[in-house]
Design goal:
Order of helices and strands: HHHHHEEHHEHEEHE
Helix content: 55-70%
Distance between the termini: 46 Å
Number of domains: 2
Largest sheet: 4 strands, antiparallel
Length: 239
């Protein structure tokens, strides 16, 4: 274990470890940006943390001879990384426990990712691999704080289920509905139609999306002022 903490290891391998983890954060974050933009619950921070945790655990294998020198001899026939595999498997159940679906919203994904990477950091601390422990801890805190600030300011698509109900005698055309929604900054997908109330009402149902959350309130205010609208619903959703 002494080889892990001596000056030669810190000088020769610290930058290499930092590079591995930074590349993982960048790659995961880049993927997360795309997911965030499309309004998915697992976004920027979640992907960055998961990618970094995977890289962190691979460092256990890459530098195995440094934290477990006996592996360099032919007399040892054990695989100490199996303990780490077991820990990460079990920690998955704990992570799943903090993910909750509240109505149409998914919460706890970033917390689950932070639990996973915390377990990875704990494994490295347990084997005395202290340099990546320090680096990963700093990067994790940075992802959870700085990236949160960035994530809140990133443009992101907002999706919603939209339903409009009209009296059957006052049904506007589909073109009018599409223009109304388009004028409020939305695009439409999956338009469907329905007769309800023993044929007394006609409903348009669709999925809509926008890059500005404020458009939802603007659309709701416009619809609430229209006498022809019997009922409407705008329900934001994610995956």
């Amino acid at each position: 274990m002494t080889g892990i903490c001596d000056g030669s290891f810190i000088q020769s391998d610290a930058l290499n470890i930092l590079l591995h983890l930074l590349v993982a954060v960048a790659a995961g974050g880049f993927i997360g940006i795309e997911r965030r933009y499309h309004g998915r619950p697992a976004g920027f921070r979640t992907h960055a943390l998961v990618c970094m945790a995977s890289s962190l655990l691979m460092l256990v294998s890459i530098f195995q001879a440094k934290w477990f020198p006996a592996m360099a001899t032919d007399t040892v026939r054990i695989d100490p990384t199996r303990m780490a595999q077991g820990v990460m498997t079990e920690i998955g159940f704990l992570g799943a426990g903090v993910i909750m679906k509240e109505g149409i919203t998914v919460r706890g994904l970033t917390t689950a990712a932070s639990i996973w990477i915390t377990a990875a950091i704990g494994i490295l601390a347990g084997v005395g691999f202290y340099v990546p422990v320090v680096i990963a801890t700093c990067l994790t805190v940075g992802v959870l704080t700085v990236f949160r600030w960035l994530e809140l300011r990133m443009p992101a698509l907002t999706y919603a289920h939209h339903r409009l109900r009209f009296n059957r005698a006052l049904i506007p055309s589909e073109d009018e509905i599409r223009k109304l929604i388009s004028d409020h900054g939305f695009t439409i997908a999956n338009m469907s139609y329905n007769l309800t109330g023993d044929g007394r009402f006609f409903e348009y149902s669709m999925s809509i999306r926008t890059v500005d959350k404020r458009n939802t309130q603007r659309l709701a205010e416009t619809l609430s002022r229209r006498e022809a609208v019997v009922e409407f619903r705008i329900a934001p959703f994610g995956d």
